[in-house]
Design brief:
The chain is of the alpha+beta class. The protein has one domain (21-36, 62-214): C8orf32 fold (Roll), CATH 3.10.620.30. Helices cover 39% and strands 14% of the residues.
């Protein structure tokens, strides 16, 4: 299945040769597996890159666990890592990188309204479809792949459950509501409105939900 093309509207100078992210990433992954492209990976890691992609020196211990892959957040996968690098390679700061990933998500991933199928990060990427929680898991995987601490958070009140992503930027946690951004974008709202969901103060969400839970993965 061909993945939707990257449409980075804010990056006017994006290389015109980047037309199909999924195909490019799969080709790179295949080359690595066939030994055609040198890649420093442990012999037992198969198609995964090394888990620790950063120096632990001066890394805040409070964010360490939110930088590494888990059994749910597969940020060490070749496709996830290469896609994240491809989307953000023209951005210089963590803020602009995470915003570029946010924009890509709301333009290329749809919310599964039925929510009857469980999907991994790669399956959400391949199918361009996922539940609200799974969509946030993919966004977090993209962020961790480029060493930006991120976590999935669940809020609930009066039976209403909502998932969002919290990421660590400039020394503090901020929220990004990628699912709400997708909904707004689908409604053909003006272009700037979906992106207003990128940087939300945590206090706004704390006031909205009675119970907030950081997901354990």
């Amino acid at each position: 299945m061909t993945h939707p093309q990257i449409r980075m509207k804010e990056e006017k100078d994006l290389d015109s040769t980047i037309e199909n992210t999924k195909e490019t990433v799969k080709n790179k992954a295949l080359e690595k597996e066939n030994g055609q492209v040198p890649v420093e990976t442990p012999a037992s890691s198969n198609s995964e890159i090394p888990m620790m992609q950063f120096s632990v020196i001066n890394i805040d211990s409070r964010t360490m666990r939110y930088r590494i892959p888990t059994n749910v957040i597969n940020s060490s996968d070749v496709q996830i890592n290469s896609t994240s690098q491809l989307i953000t390679y023209q951005n210089n700061s963590e803020y602009t990188k995470s915003r570029a990933l946010f924009s890509w998500m709301i333009e290329n991933i749809a919310v599964d309204q039925d929510n009857t199928t469980s999907r991994s990060n790669i399956q959400v990427f391949d199918e361009a479809l996922g539940s609200p929680e799974e969509i946030n898991q993919l966004y977090v995987a993209f962020l961790r792949a480029i060493d930006i601490p991120a976590r999935v958070v669940k809020g609930s009140t009066d039976g209403d459950i909502h998932f969002w992503t919290e990421l660590y930027l400039n020394g503090s946690w901020v929220a990004s509501d990628v699912v709400e951004g997708i909904y707004i974008s689908t409604d053909d709202a003006t272009e700037h409105i979906p992106r207003s969901m990128f940087n939300i103060k945590l206090s706004v969400l704390k006031d909205r939900y009675d119970l907030i839970q950081i997901m354990p993965y």
